[in-house]
Amino acid sequence: MTVAFLILAALTTAGMAAAMGLRNLVHCVLALTLGFAGLAALYLQLGAQFVGFTQILVYVGAVAILAVFAIMMTQSAGSMTRPVFSSAWLTGSLVAGSVFAVLAWAICSSAASRKMLPPEPQATVHQIGDALMHRFVLPLEIIGLLLTVALIGAVVLAMHGKRETQ
Amino acid sequence: MSSLTSYLLLSALLFSIGLAGALTRRSAILVLIGIELMLNAANLNLLAFWRYGPNPAALTGIMFTIFSISVAAAEAAVGLGLILAVYRHSRTTDLDKMNSMKG
């Protein structure tokens, strides 16, 4: 466990906790961007360069912007007088806390994490592309189909109905 | 504490933060963001197991993470579209007010 890991873990945790706890929704999305960037840096620490840059492109670039657009289109940025947590907040926090307790207990008592440190594996973009085109070509095609369906579905859902407006 | 354990503990913490947000927030957009956080925690788990696993040359952890990121992006787009559709219908994104089907 290095100093870089500790700093990145603290940054990511702080960003995500702020994203879930702040009152103003735009501030939440800004903190969420910080958390996603910290996660991308953690991926780079793990030696997965391609996934780290994909994380920055997809999450910091696209998902955060999409969330900001949704907040602006639903005009829920300025509503700060009402309580931010729902009526079932106590049950929700209890469930989340117990889930974390169970997960931490399982991780700390597991034998899988007491192994020697293997040498850093290599995952170049060339190898990833090779695997995507040979071994994982069917999942790649299915993901392409899924993204097309999701694109059309999101447009149909968010589009104003023509028959209602005319 | 080994490196794998610390990564797994961080991933469990991020998952719990996302779960707490998804269960306690009133805004539907933030509930969706909490679900995204849980997916990200799972991705960190997959990458940690790829890095410290017995056979990293097979690249399965990286492949699973890439596909998971694609599915999460599609889910975010469709989820925000659904929130916009619900907002046009009921003029609110407050989950406590969406109780018209409550018995």
TrEMBL record, chain B:
Record flagged with keyword Acetylation: no
Oligomer status and interactors: NDH-1 is composed of 14 different subunits. Subunits NuoA, H, J, K, L, M, N constitute the membrane sector of the complex.
Origin species: Edaphobacter aggregans
Annotated TM spans: 30-50, 62-87
InterPro entries tied to this protein: NADH_UbQ_OxRdtase_chain4L/K (IPR001133), NUOK/Mnh_C1-like (IPR039428)
Record has Cytoplasm as a keyword: no
PANTHER family given in the database record: NADH-UBIQUINONE OXIDOREDUCTASE CHAIN 4L (PTHR11434:SF16), NADH-UBIQUINONE OXIDOREDUCTASE SUBUNIT ND4L (PTHR11434)
GO molecular-function terms, A-Z: NADH dehydrogenase (quinone) (non-electrogenic) activity; quinone binding
Top-level EC class: translocase
Species classification: Bacteria, Pseudomonadati, Acidobacteriota, Terriglobia, Terriglobales
Membrane topology: Multi-pass membrane protein
GO CC entries: NADH dehydrogenase complex; plasma membrane
Name of the featured protein: NADH-quinone oxidoreductase subunit K
Record key words, sorted: Cell membrane, Membrane, NAD, Quinone, Translocase, Transmembrane, Transmembrane helix, Transport, Ubiquinone
